[in-house]
Amino acid sequence: MNKIVPAIAAAAVLGAGAWYFSTTPGGAPGATSFQVEAQESSEADLSLVQEMSMGNPDADVTVIEYASFTCPHCRTFHDNVFDDLKENYIDSGKINFIYREVYFDRYGLWAGMVARCAGPDRYFGIADLIYERQSEWAQGEPAQIAQNLRQIGKTAGLGDDQLDACLNDAAKAQALVATYEQNAAADNIRATPSFVIDGENYSNMNYADFSAILDEKLAD
């Protein structure tokens, strides 16, 4: 489980006052840089960030997952638990499921921006690819990681121009970090993966424990 250290999480994402994604005109990273100066969270336009959800928005039970694309424990949850959860509770309309990104570093932020690049309808499909290939893309120097994430985007059908627009969106990057900070503080999130089930906080768990909690809440 990756622990979130309060007050310095955003600094880890943005670096010493700036966040950047480097690309060349042809899509290869490293030749030029684009910087997003760190701002106060209150200056970010949170309306730029769409909540990513699936299942039944009118369900009696809502599950919120807080996870990072660079967190190995989050990948394990998605490998071993999420598919059964999706089949038995999300696709069946029993619950409303919300996924909220946590950013420990700029790489998790880049991954989130790639996942969001094709819009909400394709978000979870691209997120699956990012988790599936985590051990491959999250290795090496920043330029290589950037290229790896771009390749995942291309595998999902995104073009270079589309990826450039998404990854160089300074306002969106700032809004994503500010939204993460606000949500994590409101729900008292200290580690990933963490879950808020109908307002109650839970740590990482296996499918048997997760389903038992959901069944109990659905029976109320």
Automatic annotation (TrEMBL):
UniProt xrefs under InterPro entries: Thioredoxin-like_fold (IPR012336), Thioredoxin-like_sf (IPR036249), Thioredoxin_domain (IPR013766)
Keywords: Isomerase, Signal
Native organism: Palleronia salina
Protein name: Protein-disulfide isomerase
Recorded GO MF terms: isomerase activity
Protein family (similarity comment): Belongs to the thioredoxin family. DsbA subfamily.
Domain Thioredoxin intervals: 1-219
Chain's role: May be required for disulfide bond formation in some proteins.
Pfam families noted in UniProt: Thioredoxin_4 (PF13462)
Stretch forming the signal peptide: 1-18
